[in-house]
Structure formats: structure tokens, C-alpha cells
Amino acid sequence: MLLSSFCTVEVATCLRATTVNEAARLMRERHVGDLVVVDDDGETRSPVGVITDRDIVVEALGKGLDTSRTRVEQLVRAPIVLAREDEDTTVALDRMRTNGVRRLPVVNARGHLVGIVTADDLIVGLAEAMHALTEVMKRERGHETRHRR
To answer: Which of 49, 91, 120, 132 is most deeply buried (CB count within 10 A of its CB)?
Structure first.
């Protein structure tokens, strides 16, 4: 299945210069545990990193950084791990496993942000697909029972 069918298109974002305090406030407002850090030229958003609630706790608070002055670009992992909207979910899963990340910003062919996919998104989507397969099996048995008497 294509990754575009699993990704969330309304992505919570911030800029490189956003402070850690502001990032935490944005996460709270948007009810998310991560923000995609972008370069934004007003027309397009190009992802440069991801900051998570865990990054804030472990890297900023845990190290005693001044979160009102520390910018998110100081905490993001480089290089960023991305996914393309036209790739298969198995490719994205392999990239998550290989890089040890639970979130992948999704970009189009021009490298512009179009969504984000998380491990949770994939678990839900794949569980729904598995449920659909079990329904196929149930109906097949019922169909066979009715037609092969």
C-alpha cells in the first residue's frame, strides 16, 4: 500500500529558530508529541528535522538547557529521515527500523512537506487491513457453505 494512504496531512510544524518553550506550547495546543521543523519560504515547507516531546525532556530539560533561549534546531537529529508520498509502506517501515525513528515527514517529488507518518499510523492502518482480510476469510467460508451443499 502506498504511504500516502497512511500519512497525516495536517502536520504540526515550527521553524528552526523556534525556542524549545514555544515548541512545547505548540505541541500542547495541537495535542501532538512532535513537530516537523521546516524551512518555510511562504509558499513551500521543506522539512529539516523533527523535534519530539522526548527530545525536549531528555535533551533540553535533562541537560539543564535554558529552554526559553534554546532553539529547536539545536536538538533535531541530522540528517533528517524522510519518506516519499509515492513509496510503499514496507519501504517506510524498513527506513523507520533501520534509522530507529517512529516518525517520518512525508515529502512530494520536489521535497516539500505533504504529511507525516508515524509508527502508530502504520499500526492502525495495518490492523484495519488485517481486519479486512479476516472478513474476507469469514465471507469466503460462508459463501462456500451456501453454494456447495
So the answer is: 49
Q: Helix, strand, or coil here: 30?
A: helix
17, amino acid identity:
A
The ranges assigned to domains in the chain are: 3-147
Q: Give the integer Cα–Cα distance in Å for 143 and 89.
A: 32
- Do residues 45 and 54 lie in contact, with contact meaning Cβ atoms separated by under 8 Å? no
Q: Measured on CA atoms in the order 115, 120, 121, 123, is the torsion positive or negative? A: positive
Q: What type of residue sits at position 133?
A: L
Helix (H) or strand (E) holding 137: helix 119-147
Strand order in the sheet with 83-84: 83-84, 103-107, 113-118
In this structure, are strands 83-84 and 34-40 parallel, antiparallel, or unpaired? unpaired
Separation CA 69–CA 77 (nearest Å) = 19
* CATH 3.40.50.720 assigned to 3-147: no
d(Cα 27, Cα 149) in Å, to the nearest integer? 60
**Confidence band, pLDDT 50/70/90 cuts, at residue 128:** confident
67 pLDDT more than 80 = yes
